[in-house]
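Students often ask what a 'structure token' actually looks like in practice. Rather than answer in the abstract, let us consider Elongation factor 4, a protein of 596 residues. Its sequence is given first.
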Amino acid sequence: TPPEAIRNFCIIAHIDHGKSTLADRMLQMTGVVDDRAMRAQYLDRMDIERERGITIKSQAVRMPWELEGAPVVLNMIDTPGHVDFTYEVSRSLAACEGAVLLVDAAQGIEAQTLANLYLAMENELTVIPVLNKIDLPAAQPEKYAEELAGLIGCEPDDCFRVSGKTGVGVEPLLDAIVRQVPAPTGDADAPARAMIFDSVYDTYRGVVTYVRVVDGNLNPRERIVMMSTKATHELLEIGVISPEPVPGKGLGVGEVGYLITGVKDVRQSRVGDTVTNLAKPASAPLGGYRDPKPMVFSGLFPLDGSDYPDLREALDKLKLNDAALVYEPETSVALGFGFRCGFLGLLHLEIVRERLEREFGLELISTQPNVVYDVTMDDGTEIVVTNPSEFPGGKVAEVREPKVRATILAPSEYIGAIMELCQGKRGTLLGMDYLSAERVEMRYTLPLAEVVFDFFDQLKSRTRGYASLDYEPDGDQVADLVKVDILLQGETVDAFSAIVHKDKAYGYGVMMAGKLKELIPRQQFEVPIQAAVGARVIARENIRAIRKDVLAKCYGGDISRKRKLLEKQKAGKKRMKNIGSVEVPPEAFIAALTSD
Ligand code: GTP
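Now compare that with the structural description of the same chain:
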């Protein structure tokens, strides 16, 4: 297809504003999926995605369309819909010339609408404003057209009004995409340069890589080079998705499709990387490549210690399809053998955990998620801490923690509540704008550690669910942080060590000591629970002693009954975890880690 007849676009929206439904309708109207084969949310392939209604992996579908008798090819590129995947979203947008900005006509603009719009603007995309769900009785298209027009600087009448559900307005929207989105431009005679915007592991075919060709062309059987790693591969297959993979004779300037090289690990085909031709290589890669960087770490432990090898195997498998997942073995006094895992963010963590439990049948305990700290010691040594229990004691000169830029959207009556929350979370207000008389956008920098803790839940509860939040990494900052250890009879329980701001150390210590006092059964002797910063104890509770005599109730006689009871007690002991001489049922640790 000549570039003049191609339009590459994506749909960007806040979660639940109807992106998948509109995409389905487009597939149907362009005849790519017939009505009978149409299953809801065709583009979301993974079960978890469908159940959670979120899109994790982007894909691209080629749709034939006609405008005034002239055939065109529309490439619709799907974008992941959550903050954890901002980098992947930005690469998907970079593969497009236009974006449909979809807003629920009953909800209006939300935080992700803005975050996505900013990303689209950074990538210089043509933005088409669209109000969706106009079939809803609660829809207020006039009101939100004003808001949307004010935001992107157009007339309210320029906003399209559609319903992905009924199909109203979708055909004119497809026409508008052809009219308004620029055709791709590139140098057909230059050495090939194609950008990878997604890469998915398929059990049968190995890694399937989605690319957008910028210059030159890629053809079957050629040898290609991944420019970030210099690795070379043979192009076993190249084609387009419509809606199933269709192998073809190659891809030229502006085209979007997939390629297969036989590699088995998505790390060999990285999002953002540039693919070129070995025989005639490009001199420089396309801009914007970044290594995926885990932001949040958590220990994952099997509930049953004998599942450890299965957990390792499951992680090895998941990794094939997840370039951002990292892990290494970890041993915990309290929780046994497991893995310290790194994730892009909380949602990523949850998804991985859920897949491990669901697809691999594992039962897991995860420790409180933490961020990565850069520690400089007095002697100048630099240490990267991904596990709070490994935070160095002694001569720490400086600790740096990651921060994020957060965008919060909410009805203006909640400004006070949001400010209070953000202040308590060590946030700094960057600015505030009214989108309309009753809706406000607030921008903050916040430590990622505070956001990871329970920020979103608190934001939702303080605004009755009306606030929406989006954030992106924004470098790091020096902070006054300390490690709080929890000790049982003088022994540190590693799983409960936490790095917190100096002012919050006391609160954390009191809370954890109190929690454990409730959860750990009484022992034969008194057990002190302490919270300490270094050698300094900041909180203390005592578990009082009891004398547990199982034989007390059996007066004399029945020796077999006595033996049974003693055996039962022994079995009970075996399951206990020993911290020093204190016996703790594993459930106590689990409860302390999960309850709030
Ligand atoms: P994520 O993938 O989670 O970001 O969601 P999405 O933006 O893809 O939204 P999705 O298409 O899953 O739609 C969210 C909900 O809105 C679903 O319950 C849809 O049935 C409903 N919905 C989507 N479009 C329309 C519409 O035009 N009218 C009505 N009434 N409901 C719609």
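One point worth highlighting: Residues 9 and 98 are 5 Å apart (CA to CA). Ask yourself how you might have guessed this from the sequence alone, and why that guess would often be unreliable.
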